[in-house]
Amino acid sequence: MTRSASGSVSPYYTQEFLTAPKLCGPPRLGSQDVVVPMVMKWIAPKSVLDLGCNDGKWLHAFRKYGAERLVGVDGPYVTAETFHLPYEFFRPGNLAEPIRLHERFDLAVSVEVGEHLAPKGGANLVRSLTRHAPVVLFSAASPFQGGPEHVHERWPMWWARLFDRAGFSALDCIRPRIWSDPRVEWWYAQNILLFVHRDHIRKYPALKNERSLRASQVPSLVHPRRFLFFVEKALGPSALAPEAGLPAGRSGHGIRPHSAAFLKRDGDSFAG
After folding, report:
1. Contact criterion met (CB below 8 Å) for 164 and 196
2. Whole-prediction pTM
3. Fewest 10 Å CB contacts: which of 101, 144, 179, 226?
């Protein structure tokens, strides 16, 4: 993400960085193209609000899979050149403060945003999300996940308590389905949840077999790819070298390409 705790642009990212994805054309297939079709099947939203939309790639995916009315809110650094949708879909706003658009949506989205806001700002973010929609697709960085401008990393239970106060229950129906999918970045596979207002759950028959969780029941998970990254960082490349029974060679984010086979053999979930 590209915001500081105050909701403004982070100096860590340059305008060149922000512009590059748009100059390369539509967003590449990735996490959103795995997660969004699931959500569309369950919720079938016609209108979607994304708080912390950045370049709009998640909104772009919702549009691709059938959503019609789209609004993205983020800091003023988002420009027409960096946004993957017509710029009229974008509205500038400070995510650390309450957002009031005076309209309702079928679905609100905020993925990997809350960790960039101080605790008060995080609580305001949840209030802004639940004010605008009965269903929220949400993820935020967990403790020690790391990343630029991460000022407030919490386990999912902390966020679930805020949603619970607004009358929303957690449904952990996405993570099991994407946990081992190599197309999905590990931070989404580790953190993403669906929150549904308790008065609305029965309106979504496709979710009837999914268990609603109280805040205290939401599991805190550490993804294997994250675990291996820290193993390599702490112990050095030799920890994952051939003499350890694992082939050498690197892929993105410091994770070696052998990891899928290693995890398949030795188990693929680590409780946090």
Report:
1. no
2. 0.80
3. 144
